[in-house]
């Protein structure tokens, strides 16, 4: 049980954040129609918010995965890291923006068998990267490659693990309150 005291951060806005963070918050508002609580809090340090935002956008644009595969990676990392905020947020994105089949999203959330073989291999490999702290077995790698992914995709998974771990750890330490829009996909790790 985590008994650490909550550390409060100022909720930054477009108006109160530094110029770097303000621009990111403003772009989030334009792109998403909202500024997630996580961004408002990360804005207390422009290196964190900019680093997260840049790598997240690069992962989305250049990692070589479809939007659905990207969500499988981000959900799988968040599951392994037990991040309730990111599980809810990415479940919402998967359901409403990237159109991941709900049975896939729910399987990741519930730690049950993903019905799609290729997405199951992607999730399993991603989870192994996190669980082993970057030391998957040769069998983990072979299973991933045999599912139809490439060595370049391994690099993309590493990118997804890195960026999502940044946000997972941030949310753990600062106990980011869940945005109202994500509450329909609130998550607690199954026993």
Walk me through the structure:
- With 191 residues, this protein is mainly alpha-helical.
- It has 2 domains: 13-62, Single alpha-helices involved in coiled-coils or other helix-helix interfaces (Up-down Bundle), CATH 1.20.5; 65-185, AhpD-like.
- It has helices at 19-32, 37-42, 46-62, 67-80, 84-96, 102-110, 117-131, 138-146, 151-174.
- The chain is globular.
The CATH topology of the largest domain:
AhpD-like
Give the C-level CATH assignment of the largest domain: Mainly Alpha
Shape verdict:
globular
Number of helices: 9
Number of domains: 2
The structure class reads mainly alpha
Give a quick account of the main beta sheet: strands, pairing sense, barrel closure: none
In the CATH hierarchy, what is the architecture of the largest domain at level 2? Up-down Bundle
Give the CATH superfamily of the largest domain. Answer: AhpD-like
Order of helices and strands: HHHHHHHHH
Question: What does the radius of gyration come to?
Answer: 16 Å
Query: How much β-strand is present in the residues?
Result: under 5%
């Amino acid at each position: 049980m985590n008994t650490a005291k909550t550390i409060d951060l100022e909720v930054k806005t477009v108006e109160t954040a530094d110029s770097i963070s303000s621009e990111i918050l403003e772009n989030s508002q334009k792109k998403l129609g909202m500024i997630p609580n996580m961004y408002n809090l990360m804005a207390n340090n422009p290196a964190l918010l900019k680093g997260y935002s840049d790598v997240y956008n690069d992962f989305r644009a250049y990692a070589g995965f479809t939007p659905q595969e990207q969500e499988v990676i981000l959900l799988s990392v968040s599951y392994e890291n037990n991040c309730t905020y990111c599980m809810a947020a990415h479940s919402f994105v998967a359901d409403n923006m990237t159109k991941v089949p709900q049975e896939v999203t729910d399987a990741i959330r519930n730690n049950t068998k993903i019905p799609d073989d290729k997405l199951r291999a992607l999730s399993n490999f991603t989870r192994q990267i996190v669980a082993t702290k970057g030391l998957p077995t040769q069998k983990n790698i072979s299973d991933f490659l045999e599912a139809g992914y490439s060595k370049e995709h391994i690099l993309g998974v590493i990118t997804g693990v890195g960026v999502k771990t940044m946000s997972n750890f941030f949310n753990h330490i600062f106990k980011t309150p869940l945005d109202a829009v994500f509450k329909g996909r609130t998550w607690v790790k199954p026993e």
